[in-house]
Amino acid sequence: MASCCVNSSLILINIEVLDEEDVVKSFQIEEEFLLDGQPIKIISGAIHYFRIPTNQWEDSLYNLKALGANTVETYIPWNIHEPAEGIFDFSGMKDIVSFVKLAQSLGLMVILRPSAYICAEWEFGGLPAWLLKTPKIRLRSTDKVFMAKVEAYFKELLPKLLPLQITQGGPVIMMQIENEYGSYGMEKEYLRQTKQIMEKYGVVVPLFTSDGAWEAALEAGSLIEDDVLVTGNFGSHSKENVAALVQFMAKHGKKWPVMCMEYWDGWFNRWGEPIIKRDPKDLAQEVKEMLELGSLNLYMFHGGTNFGFYNGCSARETGSMPQITSYDYDALLTESGEPTEKYDLVQKAIKEVCPEVWQAAPRRKQVKYLGNFKVAQSVSLLNTKKTLTQSIASSYPLAMEEVGTGYGYMLYSVALRNNQSEQKLKLVEADDRIQIYLDGEYQATQYQSEIGQELLVGHEKATESITADFLVENLGRVNYGFKFNHSSQSKGIKGGIMQDIHFHQGYQHYPLDFSKEQLAEIDYSAGRNVKQPSFYKVIFELPEVSDTFIDCSAYGKGVVIVNGVNLGRYWQEGPTYSLYCPKDFLRVGENEVVIFETEGVEVKKLVFSEIPIFKH
Fold it and tell me: What is the DSSP string of 36-105?
């Protein structure tokens, strides 16, 4: 049963359930967090089930428990669970129910963040690309179309989570309504409608919001007036941030326990920038200080990997900065799950503040070099484009979301009139990165900040028309900031292509998301041309499998697909020059790796590494 008692200074949410021994279990929020009526300090760590292979979940969760933690926290990204509208997927790495049950079996409580928007440096902040098919949709607002789609998703998701609540004998003690909304909007009715939908479909555990720990963000992003727990996000200056949270709550007549829902122990990284590191001793001291003041969730405990095309992007005034494939985050566990110096020092800090906690030595793992193997076959994308996917014809160019999944690449092919001299070309309203080929010859690459600038491209062949191919890459949608509702979130060529002073008509669209079905249709006999974007196939045998890294330092830019699984992007921009390959994606016996290289760099071999490779 659930009861709620509110006065001017506190909120009491008493949640009780009978376990197998008929012992009452309860989680309460008064002036402290209470479990079975006893004060409890929440020591939590973030592990994203969708960034880690399923066979690694147990080791990561065990290591969190061994750290001295009692709780695990995870986001739930909408876009992986509803990849196409009305089509839902909760299998494999997307099996949130199994992840939560596994956490419970190891004695961990669980905090879930199933909000429509998650940020998390994840593509589009977790929103599905198909939302962009709706003209003028206003995301993260009371837009009726948007809220209807949120409710349709929650109607499918929440019934899976309800049995996991502590009221039903599960480990879930809290759920989030929205994420850092105070750093984006201030529409309280949107938060209320989201809360109402969650409650409508059976969520009874306490709800919370999390925002930056300053008054403007807390005021705009919280529902404190509706008795929804307020938490903060920060990674240092604990005393000052806790004081700001306490002051904000007191201003609204509340005296709740303080919790940092994201205690940043590292940071994410962008292409072309140095790896960001945090001093382990500094972190341990800050964690100790925070635990003396309240509860915390280490973000991240185990970061994992942005597999496939799910990396997010940072907004900039001109253009954007996409984030790298690795989500190592300089966390307590490395990308591959190995405990770090931070782990050891934070474990000691926890013990100093909470001497009664259970701790143990963490599980270690091995990452191995698995050899190097020659490329067996290769083919130019331009020669095999017609076998990969059914082309879609249109007078004017269509956005990636209109004709495909909205992820990966789109190849636009057109027949231009040949003036047998320099051609003036201009791309109008296009995102994000475009490579231009005339009759298969590379001409130029443009990014968001350059798109719209006129190009002079040469062509002297005595033909009436020119085959022009434009390879557009979605580098990752913005996951945070002022460009979240921006037109640049829709990818591909949307305005058009101008030849001389007029817009060209007549386009063939080839959406390229590298699904298993699409990869099976690559025709390696169609003809090599290493100067064009190309596929390279490597076939090799392994007597055993192990976690490993693929060395991409000799490549240009592209993706690596192992036995049908897209490991993510590599790029000579750095700062990383390798891709993490879990043993889960490899096989004893024959393996197939496909490398899609876009920069005209000939890929000659596949090389494994026992360590990640960074820019020096």
Answer: TTEE---EEEEE-GGGS-HHHHHHHHHHHHHHT--EEEEE--HHHH-SBTTB----GGG-HHHHHHHHHH
Say how far apart CA 327 and CA 440 lie, in whole Å.
36
Choose among 593, 423, 426: nearest CA to 496: 426
Q: Count up the domains in the chain and report the number.
A: 3
Residue 200 CB neighbours (<10 A) = 12
Question: For residue range 383-412, what is the model confidence (pLDDT) as tens digits?
Answer: 999 999 999 999 999 999 999 999 999 999
Handedness of CA 158, 160, 166, 171 (dihedral sign): negative
Q: Residue 92 corresponds to which amino acid?
A: G
530 assigned to some structural domain: yes
Residues 433, 531: one domain?
A: no
Range of the domain at 536: 372-378+525-609
Classify residue 104: in a domain, yes or no: yes
- pLDDT tens digits for range 257-279: 999 999 999 999 999 999 999 99
Is-contact 420 459, C-beta < 8 A? yes
- The 10s digit of each residue's pLDDT in 417-451 is 887 677 889 999 999 999 999 999 999 999 988 99
Helix (H) or strand (E) holding 382: helix 381-388
Considering the domain architecture, whether residues 581 and 443 belong to the same structural domain is answered as no
Verify that 539 and 476 share a domain, yes or no: no
Supply the residues annotated as catalytic: 180, 262
Examine residue 23 and state whether it is found in any structural domain, yes or no.
no
Same domain assignment for residues 140 and 234? yes
Structure tokens at 56: 């690694």
Same domain? 504 vs 557? no
Instruction: Say if residues 44 and 69 touch (Cβ distance below 8 Å).
Output: yes
Answer yes or no: is 441 within a domain: yes
Q: Are residues 534 and 493 located together in one domain of the fold?
A: no
Compute the chain's Rg from CA coordinates: 26
Query: In DSSP terms, which residues pair with 436 in a beta bridge?
Result: 444, 470
